[in-house]
């Protein structure tokens, strides 16, 4: 029979690592399961300037490396595995992976959410090098530059308005001839002199050698192809993609209470509707998805998990 852990954390992004740190430091037997790369989305970020206490020139990978070092120091176990199914019906929770089955007294789901991609040539290679999915994270890097915002919903238009605080000009690129955002948000965008619009337009390709240098647009009505090039003096510009996020919750469908968008519902204490199961970070229903809120979620979830385990008696099957 597999080991019974006090705490199993699914996901090793900032929320999962923070939970692992707090869980292990509280002397709970703690296991962190990650299917892919440790660190989540933050490892694609070249510079982290808005995390409290960040040192100059801090990068996503360097920040994650320090988190992992702390987690290891306090004795949390880590394993690479892809979770295929979970059984949260009993007092002892069962997590089934491709490699093994794991048992826990408490579980924290920290599987994150991934930005919906354009899936065009150059996007992956230039992510973090001109292509961004977070205005709050990266707006400052594009001060006095041209910025394109892809999308037409509330988030896209709100982020475009936010970007006008930094960029010289913001152009909203939308594949339709009208925005989907709420009318009140649209009115603010239309009234902002720094915002332009490219209607009936999509991006076909993003080009550049190590940094965004040009972008190829296609008019969805006429089929006309145009290419925008960076200003010669500046050499680059920004492309912010806001076409939605995809919460990594497919394994939990039918097993947990999800909102219509697929995010896990929790209270402020990170508790789900299932006793002993918590959620933290981008995977849960929340307003702000940032490293600082993810780590806070992870800390709260771990403290609540410790309290739950201390208050209950668990008998081995």
Automatic annotation (TrEMBL):
Stretches of the chain forming a coiled coil according to its record: none
Biological source species: Acetoanaerobium pronyense
Protein name, per record: Thioredoxin reductase
InterPro entries per the UniProt record, alphabetical: FAD/NAD-bd_sf, FAD/NAD-binding_dom, Ferredoxin-NADP_redctase_2, Pyr_nucl-diS_OxRdtase_2_AS, Thioredox_Rdtase
Key words, A-Z: Disulfide bond, FAD, Flavoprotein, NADP, Oxidoreductase, Redox-active center
Keyword Phosphoprotein found: no
Subunit structure: Homodimer.
Cofactor(s) essential for the protein: FAD
Pfam families assigned: Pyr_redox_2 (PF07992)
Sequence similarity: Belongs to the class-II pyridine nucleotide-disulfide oxidoreductase family.
Cofactor note: Binds 1 FAD per subunit.
EC number, UniProt record: 1.8.1.9
Reactions this protein catalyses: [thioredoxin]-dithiol + NADP(+) = [thioredoxin]-disulfide + NADPH + H(+)
Domain FAD/NAD(P)-binding: 5-298
GO molecular function, one term: thioredoxin-disulfide reductase (NADPH) activity
């Amino acid at each position: 029979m597999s080991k019974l852990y006090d705490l199993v954390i699914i996901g090793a992004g900032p929320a999962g690592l923070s939970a692992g740190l707090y869980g292990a430091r509280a002397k709970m037997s703690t296991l962190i399961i990650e299917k892919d790369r440790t660190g989540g989305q933050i490892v694609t970020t070249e510079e982290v300037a808005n995390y409290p206490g960040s040192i100059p020139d801090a990068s996503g990978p360097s920040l994650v490396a320090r988190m992992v070092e702390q987690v290891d120091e306090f004795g949390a176990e880590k394993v690479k595995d892809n979770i295929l199914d979970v059984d949260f019906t009993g007092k002892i929770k069962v997590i089934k992976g491709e490699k093994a089955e794991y048992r826990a007294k408490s579980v924290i789901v920290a599987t994150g959410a991934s930005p919906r991609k354009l899936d065009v040539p150059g996007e992956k290679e230039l992510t973090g090098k001109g292509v961004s999915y977070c205005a709050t994270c990266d707006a400052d890097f594009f001060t006095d530059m041209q910025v394109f915002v892809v999308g037409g919903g509330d988030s896209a238009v709100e982020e475009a308005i936010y970007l006008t605080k930094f960029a010289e000009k913001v152009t909203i690129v939308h594949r339709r001839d009208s925005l989907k955002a709420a009318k009140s948000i649209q009115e603010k965008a239309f009234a902002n002199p720094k915002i332009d619009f490219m209607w009936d337009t999509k991006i076909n390709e993003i080009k550049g050698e190590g940094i965004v240098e040009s972008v190829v647009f296609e008019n969805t009505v006429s089929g006309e192809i145009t290419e925008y090039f960076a200003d010669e003096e500046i050499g680059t510009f920004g492309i912010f993609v806001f076409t939605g996020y995809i919460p990594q919750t497919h394994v939990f469908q039918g097993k947990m209470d999800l909102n219509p968008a697929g995010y896990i519902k929790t209270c402020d204490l990170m508790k789900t509707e299932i006793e002993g199961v918590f959620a933290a970070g981008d995977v849960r229903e929340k307003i702000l998805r940032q490293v600082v809120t993810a780590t806070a979620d992870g800390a709260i979830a771990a403290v609540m998990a410790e309290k739950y385990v201390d208050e209950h008696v668990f008998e081995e099957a």
